[in-house]
Amino acid sequence: TYEWLDSLPSTYPDIVSLETIGSSWQGRDLKLIRFNKDWGIPKTAAFIVANMHARERITSATLTWIMNELLANPVYERILNEYDLHFLPIANPDGLERSQTTDRMWRKTMSDHDPEDGCIGVDPEQNFDFHWSDSGPCSSGPAPFSESETRAIADYVLENMPQLDFKLYLNIHSFSQFVLFPWGYTATHPDDYDDLVSLSLSPIHCVEHHRGHCLEVARITESALEERYGTQYESGTYTDLLYRILGTSTDWMKGVAGIKYSYQYELRDTGEFAFLLPPDQIVPSGEETLDGLVALLDAVRERSRENAL
C-alpha cells in the first residue's frame, strides 16, 4: 500500500500530490494524498480519512480501491475535474502494523505515554479536543491530542482551512452499515440537524449521479450505498444510533474546524464477518462506497452553494 501511494505522484503528475503531514508514535509517516486537477474553476474540497481504528482494515482497503478507481476509470473524470480531494488512507499506521502482524483485533494507537500505568495505545476517536473526556489513559489518552496522529490530522485541516475551505469531512470506519453524523458528545441534535439529515433521508431535490440518472439528495447515502448491491444502511447521529462518545474526529471537524457536512461511514457488514471481512468483499465494498461518495460530494456542493446565497 505505501509503495503504491508513493508511486501515484509520478504516475499521475497532473493530478496527484503526496505530503507527509506528520508521523506516528513509532515514526511511521502519515501520508496525505491530494487529487487536484487544475481545471481553472473553484472546487469543493473534501477530506476523507480511513483506518483510524487499526482492526478496521477494510476501510483502508476500500479507500485505496476508490482512489485507484477515480484515477484509472475515465467514468470518474468529472469528479477529478470538479473536486479537490484530500485522502488519508491510513490514519493509524502503528496500530495497523500491529493488527497485521501480532494482534488482529488491535484497535488503538501504539503510544506509551507512561510505562508505569501498563497502558499501550489510545483510541484516536476519543482523543480530539472537542468535548474530550478524561475517561482514562487507555481510551481517551492522557490529554486531548496526546496522539501525534490525531494532532497531525487537526493541524492539517486548520492550516489549510483558510485557503481550501473544506466543505466535507468523511471518516470511514467499519462495521454496522451506518451513516453517522454529529453530535456524539450529546443527545441534543445540532442546530442544522435537518440540513444534515436531509442529505441522508428527506426528499429535497435531485443531483446528477455519476451513472447519469437523478438521485434524490433525499436518500443520498442510503440510496447511493444501497443501489448497487442492496446493502442496507441506516443514517443518524451517534447518540441516536449507537451511544454517547466524546472526543470524536467527526464532532471536532464540525464543532471546531467548522466543516458543516461531517459524516462517518460504518462499512459492511452487520456482524456476520464483522472486522474480519474476507478479501472478496473489498471490491464490492469499494464500489458501493464510491457510489455513496460521488453522490455525497455532489449533494454537499449543491447544498453549500444554496447556503451561500
From TrEMBL:
Its cofactor is Zn(2+). Keywords: Carboxypeptidase, Hydrolase, Metal-binding, Metalloprotease, Protease, Signal, Zinc. One of its GO terms (molecular function) is metallocarboxypeptidase activity. SUPFAM superfamilies: Zn-dependent exopeptidases (SSF53187). It comes from the Eukaryota. CDD domains: M14_CP_A-B_like. One of its GO terms (cellular component) is extracellular space. Residues 1-300 form the Peptidase M14 domain. The active site is at E266 (proton donor/acceptor). Pfam families: Peptidase_M14. GO terms for biological process: proteolysis. Signal peptide: none annotated. Belongs to the peptidase M14 family. This is Peptidase M14 domain-containing protein. It comes from Darwinula stevensoni.
